[in-house]
Amino acid sequence: MGVIECREVSKKYLRKKALNQLSFTIEENKITGLIGRNGAGKTTLLKLLSGFIKPTSGKIKIFSEKPFDNLTVSVNSILIDDQMAFPTALNLGDILVAASKFYPNWDSKLAEGLLNYFSFKTYQYHNRLSKGQKSTFNMIVGLSSHCPLTMFDEPTTGMDEAVRKDFYRALLKDYIAYPRTILISSHHLEEIEHILEDVLLIKNGECILHQSITDLKEMMIAIQGKKEEVSSLLLNHDVISEQMIGTDYMQKVIKRHEISEDSILSARRSGLEINAVSPSQACLYLTQERKGGIDDVFN
Amino acid sequence: MSLIKADLAEILKKQYFFKFKANIDVFSSLVGLQLLAVLFSLGGGMYTGYYGGGMDISMKLYSADMVILFTMIWALITSVTITTKPYRNYEFTFVTNRISSSLSNILFLLTISLLAGFTSMLSANLIHVLVYFFIDSGMLIYEQHMQDIITGVISTSLYIFLFCSFGYLFGAFIQVHKVFSGLIPVGIIGLLLFDGMKLNSTIAMFYFNEPSLFMFFIKTIILAGIAFAVAILILRNMEVKR
Amino acid sequence: MTSLYLLVIIGAIAILSIFLISKKIKTTYAILITYSSILLISTILVGFISIEPENIQIESEAVSQQLNNALKNGDRENIDPLYVMKEESFQIDEEKVLTLKSNYEDGLTFYIERKAEDDGQVDSTIYHIGPIVNGHYVENSLEPYELHYSENMLDYYVNRVARLIFHMNTSEFTINQFKHDDVFAINEIHTQAPAVYLQIPKSLSIDRDGDFFIEYVK
Fold first, then answer.
1. pLDDT value of position A299
2. Beta carbons of B211 and C177 less than 8 Å apart
3. Is residue A106 pLDDT above 60, yes or no?
4. Do C166 and B132 touch (CB under 8 A)?
5. Structure ipTM
6. CB-based contact (8 Å) between A133 and chain B?
């Protein structure tokens, strides 16, 4: 039984479809990356899972319960994003005290430690923090809540490089100590791929891929070389992406299982360069609208 | 990580206490408005004078009526405010559902109504003291029966609570669509003007002229209950947009 | 004395506020606590600065009527000493006519009782019902009236204008709604013209100079 179960979930805003017939299941205690381009429906999905909004059609089950207006889901889940609202009357210290009352698994020691580490003062006010500081503080709340379902929506917005690295490290360490189901949305997969177990890729509100990160790493290969040679090799293959390099050279991307090991070996021998495609590149290829990418606009 | 089964009563209690911290600013505005009303009340109410036969007597009545009216407006504004997006959203940062949010709001409003009713009644004394020391020090004839004070605190709190419930309902309508923020006041004023005395006197007979405190209590609970129930129904399907 | 009280109180509030703010208590709490303490102090203070109404809810007309009847009949034992303003005696010359004089023009009455013998002395009592404000008798210690005797003339005069300022609390509308007796606040000042009761020697003749009533007690 999965912690999150979605069956043909759709969400419409007026006439625009934000999510379209989305189905997937996320198992307990996994870190899943929710990847997609801007407007793919990541935020809408997370809000649905948090019970903030209602699906137009389809079924969502979180811990086997419908999340909308559900107290059990609310107590066991938390959504961290850059629009998290805190009462303006409370300073950071008060907010942490309030959160500790609401979330039964709250880890005060961790919250205090992180607050000190990122040099926050308890008397500061949330609405006077900078964008990056807000994200950092929200992340502290998210980690310390130790909710069985913890969701981060673009958690690193505005954070600088060092803080981002600290954050991912803190997330991983805390996850190992207290395993729980974690969902992180991002459009930078390369930034989070080292902590992920699974990737859920959505495009235009549809789930186009849901598999482990190791599978994704081996999913595609890029073949680079003289234009004619590459084209002739991949004549009958389903090319995911192609790109000209200068005038004579080009690179084409295909799925690894489309081509046999023998062909790869012979291609290598004939001077073609064959590289693995990184998960983030793979996701980029899977979500782009045209094979040629932005270059098509200029051709 | 093990699942925790949510207990509505437990969460209500937490939200209730949380709201006193989160909405603490309503108390500053209460103090500010009541002090302003006290200031306006220093002019006094009905005046009677007598001159003749070696006597020059002047006599003024003072009461906290103005403070109560101001407090009712404060109740209306406060309850509209807590239905607005920022106030609803920060509950969803923590643990809530729509019902528990509204129920804890109602409990919060009930508590502040009692507090405001109490300070409204006591503010009359502040008015007397200020008049005596700063306006003109005459003789203060002060007659107050314990029974009146208790009646006053109860009925004033009920009035304030009723206004809270109307504000909450009004706020809920505004959350559905902003157009209601103009439509409802215009509608109410229009209705009163159009129907004139008839509607006014019906309302007055039903509520403002109710001579029995017990019946007044029952009527307030029913009216406020209806307003809150409708507001809860409206807010129940409200999505969190942040 | 009262301003000293006030000074002490203001000082106490100020110290309390500073104490609260310095202890890093939220300003709002400090405001609320200060306001509440001001209200409570006012409530206590009102008890000190207000005058207790002497008789609660006097029927002002009835009181006047009673006093007049008592004086008319010379039945003075039952008159409330509250209404006695001044008692004086004057040595007079019985042989001459005594002229009563007054500049008071609002219904002053001289009640005159003849004594059993001629003792050369007039005993006077000024009766005055102090203002009754909204049914509360306010003791009149201002005594704006005086009797003066010289050369067979007894002059009753208003020596000054007594200025009285009253403040009164009135029930809020939220209380009046549930009070069945007087829904509308009546603001009423009742004053009663003073009366002078004279006990004169048996055979003294009386003359008058002024616009007032003279009633002889049987």
1. 64
2. yes
3. yes
4. no
5. 0.83
6. no
